Request: fold
Amino acid sequence: MRVVIVGAGVVGASIARVLSMYEGLDVLIVERMPDVGWGASKANTSVIHPGHEEDPRQHPLRARLCVEGNRLWRRWAEELEIPARWPGELMVFTTPEEEREAMRYVELARLNGVPGVRPVYGAELRALEPAVSEQALGAIYAPTAGTVSPFEAVIAIVENAVENGVRLLAETEVKRVVVEGGAVRGVETSRGFIEADVVVNAAGLHADEVSHSAGVEGDFRIRPRRGEYLLYDEAVPVKPARILHTTPTPLTKGVYALTTVHGNLLLGPTAEDLPYEAKGSAPTTRQGLEHVLREASKLLRELPPRAKLVRTFAGLRPEPPGGEWLIRAYDDPWGFVNVAGIRSPGLTAAPAIAHYVAGLIAERYGVELRRKRRWNPRRRGIRRVAGRSLEEVDAMVRENPDYGEIVCYCRMVSKAEVLEAVERIRRIGARVTLDGVKFRSYAGFGRCQGGFCRWRVALLVSRATGVPMHAVPVATAPYGLGDVKALLRGEAQ
Ligand SMILES: Cc1cc2nc3c(=O)[nH]c(=O)nc-3n(C[C@H](O)[C@H](O)[C@H](O)COP(=O)(O)OP(=O)(O)OC[C@H]3O[C@@H](n4cnc5c(N)ncnc54)[C@H](O)[C@@H]3O)c2cc1C
Reply:
């Protein structure tokens, strides 16, 4: 049976990985971008939520899959060598009204079976988080919260899925789902027709359009909701040990302050509904970034100096009507599955969503899910020079002299790592771009943001791929990068 998955975000990738565990399924991911994970799955807060912020009376499936996803991520991160940390989170309240609101989440934790959620005050709060703001009256502590590297998560999941037989077709846009006689026949794409027995729509912001093209859920529309962030250098004076966030509002889980898995301080996001037409890009705004800084001052006892800002960016949440995820396998057309409107906590829930969708396909379309005997759960990350002792590096250089040639000094990335990134991009069938190499090797991720190494990386890519240096694509993701220098001058738009 051929299953075509539309979209290589964390949801589509996770579904592909889970389906790759079973015999008899020919799984193809069709992605319109040159590489995987360049949609909402790249530009987000990166939090693996505990599940105490989901109301099971309002969104029972979301609540269940969030809690399950949090549990599954521990295993997935370990199996796939995805950078992850599990520091727990503190929902900070600064007024008695916020405290009352925050207490609701202790009850939701109980309803959802989230362990260890409780209020903390005074000395205990400050022992848990020395960086917390003086304004904090207390916090709700949720010990099971974590953070992963979201773009590396998608890369790792796709690498593992491909290793297990899944194929990726990048730079291929699904134009419409082809239905004949009440059943799915395949998808019409920018590169021609692809036959399919089952089409899984995991197209993020564009999943409503894909669904309409299959003739279902005509009223379902996905609205972009912008979230803006500031990302700081590793060397800021005050960095949180836990994941901190303000008390949620009906629109958002609040503004976060967290130390990313790569050691940077991340502040954000905002939550701003944009018109339906604004799905294409999301620049940062001065008002948005100022809002983030104001809210972050309720979290941290000291905000970082502006000179430590590395960059600003924005992501677009695929916001469905009423916040309700649309996960459904249809009889008409037979073989069409929507996994649409997967707004937060979609990153957290993705592994659980994937198992749920596999179950739906099995049940609705009578597919017997028989585990492969030789399914490989493991994927190795890129071997890195950074953080190793000189003795270890010596041994690596003896094995491959390219480990001794540093390309990116901010992050200490060697030529060997850059070349391995190129090789891995090719192996999954994506296009080699400078951004793709950066996300895998970290060359260009440091303080200078590629100012010094981009040239060298482009040269290495050019030699490895035969593409002339001037033609090596940068392929920046469509979600806008802010102009940091403009922000420093106080004139960001
Ligand atoms: C600002 C922000 C903060 C968030 N914070 C968190 C958080 O901390 N924790 C959490 O759990 N969740 C968070 N989320 C939610 C989470 O990021 C999303 O739920 C999740 O990434 C959705 O994944 P997806 O695969 O459905 O969508 P995407 O990652 O957008 O993937 C969809 C893919 O489909 C492709 N595509 C679209 N149309 C087509 C087509 N016609 N043909 C082929 N390909 C197509 C796109 O190019 C894209 O790659 C946040 C989201 C945002 C934006």
Residues 6-12, 30-33, 38-41, 44-47, 49, 173-174, 202-206, 210, 227, 269, 315-317, 342-348 surround flavin-adenine dinucleotide (CB under 6 Å). Residues 2-41+151-222+322-365 form a domain with the FAD/NAD(P)-binding domain fold (CATH 3.50.50.60). The chain has three domains: 2-41+151-222+322-365, 89-143+223-319, 390-471. Confidence is low (pLDDT under 50) at residues 477-493.
